[in-house]
Amino acid sequence: MKGFVEDPDFLLGTGTAVELYHGWAERMPIVDYHCHIDPKDIWEDRHFEDLSQVWLRGDHYKWRLMRSNGVPEEFITGERTGREKFQKFAEMLPRAIGNPMYHWCHLELKNYFGYTGVLNGETAQRVWDLCNEKLRSDPAMSVRGMICGSNVAMVGTTDDPCSDLAWHEKLSADGSFAPKVLPSFRPDPAVNLHKAGFADYLRKLEETVGREISTVEDVRQALSVRIAFFDAHGCRSADHGLDYVMFRPASDMAATAALRRAGGGEPLTREEAEGYQTALLLHCAREYARLGWVMQLHFSCMRNPNTKILKTLGPDTGFDCMAVTDSCSATYRLLDTLEQEASLPRTVLYSLNPADNAWIDTLLGAFQSPEIPGKIQHGSAWWFNDHKAGMTEHLTSLANLGVLGNFIGMLTDSRSLLSYARHEYFRRVLCDLLGRWVENGEYPRDMETLGGLVQDICCHNAKRYFNL
How do 321-322 and 301-302 pair as beta strands? Predict the structure, then answer.
């Protein structure tokens, strides 16, 4: 019987997989090109008072599991003590058999705190004491220490267009911190005019750029100003969170009418909203292409379906879910329009619905170019798909229908510093898959070639792709 996470060969089912992981993947730097870590915490080198602050703070994955086990909200985002919250989590965890969180949690405890036992209700106090002692006594358990200790070469944060990027400026000027911390442009509040708070955001954007916004062209110009500002601060990438990919070209007059109706709090038809969104998405993509940025599109997510909870806890608290959308046709028309103009940026497509894997992987091949291998990417198995089966399905589909060797690899998409353990998890899954193919006779046992592919997928491809 194979060992659990304390086994060096955890998840590695063949001798080839073991050799690939330990010989080629394990020590590669991490390029975490999309995450939600606060750059202020990095600049201030935050230290954590107790385990709950680094374990549960902002980790929606863990919150969801606790709720699914009937844990009251007071033990999740409420006023209970960190020790009480951790106890409830530990009591729940053994029931999450088959969930990647069970593996991730034990990898986090092993990698950051040296604990190789299991976490459950009975061991919770011992784990709490051990981890808190390390947080108090080990200087490397600060935010910067964890990033450097995880061998992270680059952190790509997610930033509002109105941000002054002050923390990024400080980090850029700090020669003592080796990892790059680069902003990513996230213009969703200005693009998604059907979302709550749109009118207030326009006022904020007006204040930031120092000009009135009353037409869609005004929004374009304001975003161009902010894109230039981000570019001057080292930005390499933009990210759009879309319910679905839309493509409905509209006149500036129609887009402006939709803008004004939304700004006045009036309801919009789907057609009106999509006309405005398409105008802004096209404009942003053209700017990204001009500057050599990467455009990331995340879609097929159903945001905040629980209205009661949205009213009490607000958005982004762990209640989103997978959506079934038809984004294929719109994505093709978006890429085709930009390609005809020679304005198609490097683009990463992420669908939260794994049923979209095949069409994404075939669409990639229709819009590649000599600019860079894998110019159009199928983003890593994301959010509800970053478990062993989801990663394997994603990698297999990409290999079957595209060129796996050009893949830019894993990201955390997380607010938790401990989530760097997910890169190890991905690398083990990747090496296990390749190892099985080799030992099944489906690929030659050429370790130099295989090792080079693994290192490219783990690190080098992303460095090239994001011009690092």
Answer: antiparallel
Q: Let me know: does 361 contact 398? Beta carbons within 8 Å.
A: yes
User: pLDDT tens-digit profile of 402-452?
Assistant: 999 999 999 998 888 999 999 999 999 999 999 999 999 999 999 999 999
**Strand, coil or helix: what is 325?**
coil
Residue 281: per-residue pLDDT: 98
Separation CA 29–CA 20 (nearest Å): 15
Whether the CB-CB separation of 345 and 294 falls below 8 Å is answered with yes
For residues 458 and 423, what is the distance between their CA atoms, to the nearest angstrom?
8
In the numeric block, the tokens 């990898």 are attached to 107
In the numeric block, the tokens 């945001």 are attached to 303
DSSP bridge partners of 66? none
Q: How many CA atoms lie within 13 A of 166 on its CB side?
A: 4
Distance CA 293, CA 348 (A): 11
Q: Which two tokens stand for residue 206?
A: 């007006």
CB neighbour class for 237 (10 Å; exposed up to 12, middle 13-18, buried from 19): buried
pLDDT at residue 13, as a whole number: 96
Per the listing, tokens 């792709």 go with 465
How many whole angstroms separate alpha carbon 183 and alpha carbon 294? 12
How far is 104 from 109, CA to CA, in rounded Å? 9
Q: Which of 129, 143, 189 is nearest to 162 (CA)?
A: 189
Of 237, 330, 349, the residue nearest 289 (C-alpha): 237
pLDDT of residue 192: 95
What's the rounded Cα separation, in Å, for the pair 380 and 384? 11
Query: What pTM did the predictor assign?
Result: 0.96
- In whole angstroms, give the CA distance from residue 460 to residue 468: 10
What is the amino acid identity at position 118?
Answer: V
Query: Residue 398's pLDDT is what?
Result: 98
Can you give the pLDDT at residue 150?
A: 97
